[in-house]
Specification:
This protein has about 400 residues and is α/β, with parallel strands linked by helices. The chain folds into two domains: about 170 residues, Rossmann fold; about 210 residues, CoaB-like (Rossmann fold). Helix 13 links the parallel strand 17 and strand 18. Helix 4 crosses helix 6, helix 5 packs across helix 8 and helix 10 packs across helix 14. The longest helix has 15 residues. The structure holds cytidine-5'-triphosphate. The site of cytidine-5'-triphosphate has 13 residues, from helix 12 and strand 17.
Length: about 400
């Protein structure tokens, strides 16, 4: 999913958060969107049109009479009407069918265009029943709306009403545009790498960052799924994980095994993107082992293959997807693993191509179909993009 060539009409209304719409505007442009801007009279008190004009944007002021027929041309232009920030006044006016400004006029002329409302105001205004009823009403009319963020507000109060993070708004926009190929499906994704502890500080692990699994969980949400992520030793501050994803944190193989045992039966699709250790230490010390106490060789025991174990319990309509890390005999090994683990899909990463821990990935998807085993090559691309394509592939089969 990309913003490239999407036409976005950004409507900025008079919340103190209006200045944040500049960052939103710049991010949309950076992602390749064509943006037109309308600023309401209230909005221009906080962010003068001149600011947008400095970025080369010609801004419409919110005057119903200044630009003849602009409400029609803008409604034809827009793939999405984004009202961000949206004030108490604007939301209530739209819900009441009032069309007395350019913003409300465009909305009135755009019944079929997706509309995303991003409320931002004091928390007591946000919780006001009039507003809440009107947000519900707009949702019934197929408007999309975001919940504001919680935190310190401009007036000093603390509560729900803050303009959401730009990253969250971008996610919602992409969600609006995404095909709902996994609507209502429960998707379970594992991401990161297990750590097999020898003692409280030493462990056996791998270099998996969890990026691919996180991207898959995010894309599953956009595609309409209910997503759960089992994250293994992921540096959460380094990644965007959508707030709609339920996150279960595990550290080692046995915690992962336990979490999967509990979650798998509730799931429709399991995507095992995690790098799971094939071994654990035979003995694990609860206290840090002194270096003088370390043996020259450490005894390891094999871990059970979790995918193999789960595929035996698999219901007929459950889908299983594995990932494989290979540096030789890629296709043969991938097909062998698909068969041995009874998977519907396996994505094979060619680790000789320097992909571990990177933002990009490439590889071959092998899928079991009625026509036999098929393969599809994915060129090197951002993990987010690849995840979106893999989710579409899975969506075809559900
Ligand atoms: N996997 C698993 N249980 C394990 C090891 C791996 O379920 N004990 C899953 C991984 O999450 C991945 C897939 O199996 O989806 C393939 O993992 P990979 O490590 O490439 O394959 P292995 O079967 O462990 O084989 P090898 O390491 O020998 O290549």
């Amino acid at each position: 999913m990309t913003m490239k060539d999407k036409n976005i009409l950004l409507c900025v209304t008079g919340s103190i958060a209006a200045y944040k719409s500049i960052d939103l505007y710049r991010r949309l442009v950076k992602e390749g969107a064509n943006v037109e801007v309308i600023i309401s009279e209230g909005g221009s008190n906080f962010v003068p049109p001149f600011v947008f004009e400095s970025f080369g944007e010609s801004v419409y002021t919110d005057d119903a009479f200044k630009y003849p027929l602009a409400h029609i041309s803008l409604s034809k232009f827009a793939d999405l009407i984004l009202i961000a920030p949206a004030t108490f006044n604007t939301i209530n006016k739209i819900a009441s069918g009032i069309a007395d400004s350019l913003i409300t006029l465009v909305v009135s002329a755009s019944s079929d265009t997706p509309k995303l409302v991003v409320p931002s105001m004091n928390s007591s205004m946000y919780s006001n029943k009039i507003l809440q009823d009107n947000i519900k009403k707009l949702e019934e009319y197929n408007f999309y709306s975001m919940k504001p963020a919680e935190g310190g507000l401009a007036c000093g109060d603390i509560g729900e009403g803050k303009f959401p993070e730009i990253e969250d708004i971008m996610f919602e926009i992409e969600r609006v545009f995404a095909k709902k190929v996994l609507s209502g499906k429960r998707v379970l994704v594992t991401a990161g790498g297990t750590r097999e502890y020898l003692d409280p500080v030493r462990f056996l692990s791998n270099g998996s960052s969890g990026r691919m699994g996180i991207a898959l969980a995010n894309e599953a949400i956009k595609a309409g799924a209910i997503a759960t992520l089992i994250s293994l030793n992921i540096e959460k501050s380094c990644h965007y994980i959508n707030k709609g994803i339920r996150n279960i944190e595990c550290r080692d193989f046995s915690e992962l095994r336990q979490a999967l045992g509990k979650e798998f039966k509730k799931t429709d699709i399991l995507i095992m993107a995690a790098a799971v250790s094939d071994f654990s230490f035979k003995t694990k010390s609860s206290k840090k082992i002194k270096k003088t106490g370390l043996k020259k060789s450490l005894e390891i025991i094999p871990n059970e293959d979790l995918l193999k174990m789960l595929s035996k319990e698999k219901r007929k309509n459950q889908l299983l997807m594995g990932f494989a890390a290979e540096d030789a005999g890629i296709l043969e090994n991938g097909i062998k693993k698909l068969k041995e683990k009874s998977l519907d899909y396996i994505f094979i990463n060619d680790i000789s191509r320097n992909i571990i821990g990177k933002d990009e990935n490439e590889g071959i998807l092998i899928k079991k179909t009625k026509k036999g085993i098929l393969k599809k090559i994915f060129e090197r691309q951002a993990k987010k993009m690849l995840a979106s394509k893999l989710i579409s592939e899975i969506g075809e089969k559900t």
